[in-house]
Specification:
alpha/beta; Spore Coat Polysaccharide Biosynthesis Protein SpsA, Chain A; nine-stranded mixed sheet; 12 helices; 45% helix
């Protein structure tokens, strides 16, 4: 039975961590290394975790890594990868819950398919039947169509795959999942999704993602995420036709984020010029695609014009719905 590392980052979650930690400790799979990464919040989470695990039969299998200062959830995920001892690694959030057989089901899926990543179903995403994806174009485009969830949790990764491909999060980014999962799909040779529900996601209105509604820091992060995703794409070994398809979808994603910024209660409209910057489209591919060339011309327009187009498009979409 292979060792699996289950990583939980903790930061200001005193109210929720007991529920999450017990769901992790009470797994039916027997060979688990529990890796808690304390990202130095305002409370004394280390002592709280030790109190919870002191009387649990699996308490000795838990290890705590403490950051000297708060450096963000992305850095906490990186710390877990660098300190994991298992053959596989699974991430969970410290305010969510695993089903008792979560790790067992993910491991069964991994043994059955031998892919780089196995994803379970959750309260967010579910599938009717298990399926394995090996077609590179379908894998990469599943980043955009929702077939492969972007969120890092509820997946079992081969640790050797993450190390060999140098897949990590960017520290200090609030939405660490986007960059990480884009790397995974660019580098993986296959993935599978199992129909078993293995994870319960709890929405919190005080969380980094603001319970599904973005805070100002998320909009700020997307200025760098937009650049970082393009850099990953340019460095990838995808063929030129697929790269153009991905660039189109990245532009559509940035358009959607611009529309959210326009409606946001935060003063983040000025980020629209960053999301829709011509610098993100200015390369030889814009001459190979009419869509990208028109997008480039649009990106050179003044802010008021972009804002007007976004408003008209939002109105049109609302009327259709």
């Amino acid at each position: 039975m292979d060792l699996i590392t289950l990583s939980i980052p903790v930061y200001n979650v005193e109210e929720y961590v007991k529920r999450s930690l017990l769901s992790a400790l009470n797994q039916t799979y027997e060979n688990i290394e529990y890796l808690i990464v304390n990202d130095k919040g305002s409370g004394n989470l280390t002592e709280l975790v030790r109190d919870i695990t002191a009387i649990h039969p699996r308490g000795m299998e838990l290890h705590i890594v403490e950051h000297p200062v708060n450096i963000g959830i992305g850095a906490s995920r990186n710390t877990a990868i660098e300190n994991a001892s298992g053959k596989y690694i699974c991430f969970m959030d410290s305010d969510d819950e695993l089903t008792p057989d979560c790790i067992e089901k993910l491991y069964e899926g991994m043994r059955k398919t031998n892919v780089d990543v196995v994803c379970g179903s959750s309260s967010y995403v579910s599938v009717a039947n298990e399926y394995v994806e090996k077609n590179k174009e379908e894998m990469v485009l599943s980043y955009f169509n929702g077939k492969f969830p972007i969120l890092m949790w509820n997946k079992l990764y081969k640790l050797s795959f993450l190390h060999d491909k140098h897949i990590r999060c960017i520290p200090y980014q609030t939405v660490e999942d986007n960059y990480f999962t884009f790397q995974v799909l660019l580098c993986a040779s296959s993935y599978s999704i199992i129909p078993d529900t293995t994870y319960f996601h709890h929405v919190r209105w005080d969380s980094a993602g603001n319970g599904g509604k973005w805070g100002g820091k998320v909009f700020e992060d997307w200025t760098s995420i937009s650049v970082d995703l393009l850099k990953l794409l340019q460095k990838s070994t995808l063929d030129s036709k697929l790269k153009i398809k991905v660039k189109k979808r990245l532009f559509k994603r940035r358009w959607g984020i611009s529309a959210l910024a326009l409606k946001s209660p935060y003063n983040v409209q000025y980020y629209i010029n960053d999301y829709l910057s011509p610098a993100l489209l200015k390369d030889k591919d814009m001459f190979r695609s009419a869509y990208l060339f028109i997008a480039y011309l649009f990106s050179n327009m003044p802010f008021w014009f972009k804002k007007m187009c976004l408003s008209l498009h939002a109105k049109f979409v609302d009327e259709k719905q």
